């Protein structure tokens, strides 16, 4: 929770580096939400060096552990070719997985992918 607050600046000053350090501790403890947030930090280079491939790796681990938002973001990475090869097949796979996990934005992502 503290890492999330530090990333957003809610109730405390933003401190991205400290947030990433705390996320790494939570990831070591097996927290899928921390993996998701850490993956987003790597993708954007927030609080750490930008590492798109590392971000995709974190997102995939979180998604495989049942994190719906991570599955959705991973699908976007494959759709855009960000940190992973562009692949409509893999994007659709992760969008469907996100939908099965209850992510409400996944259906719109699948429709967007089908139109392109």
Notable features of this structure?
71% helix; single chain; 116 residues; Serine Threonine Protein Phosphatase 5, Tetratricopeptide repeat; 7 helices; 0% strand; mainly alpha
Structure description:
With 116 residues, the chain is an all-alpha fold. It has one domain (2-115): Tetratricopeptide repeat domain (Serine Threonine Protein Phosphatase 5, Tetratricopeptide repeat), CATH 1.25.40.10. The chain has helices at residues 2-8, 16-28, 32-44, 52-64, 68-80, 88-100, 106-115. It is globular, with a radius of gyration of 14 Å.
SSE inventory with pairings:
Layout lengths: L1 H7 L7 H13 L3 H13 L7 H13 L3 H13 L7 H13 L5 H10 L1
Helix pairs in contact: 1-2, 2-3, 3-4, 4-5, 5-6, 6-7
| General shape | globular
Number of helices: 7
H/E element sequence = HHHHHHH
Q: What is the name of the CATH class?
A: Mainly Alpha
Main sheet properties? none
Helical content (DSSP H or I, runs of 4+): over 70%
Number-wise, the strands total 0
CATH H-tier superfamily: Tetratricopeptide repeat domain
What structural category arises from helix and sheet content?
mainly alpha
Q: Give the averaged pLDDT, no decimals.
A: 97
Radius of gyration: 14 Å
Q: What portion of the residues fall into strands of 2 or more residues?
A: under 5%
Number of domains: 1
The CATH architecture assignment turns out to be Alpha Horseshoe
Summarize the structure.
By secondary structure, the protein is mainly alpha-helical. It is built from 7 helices and no strands.
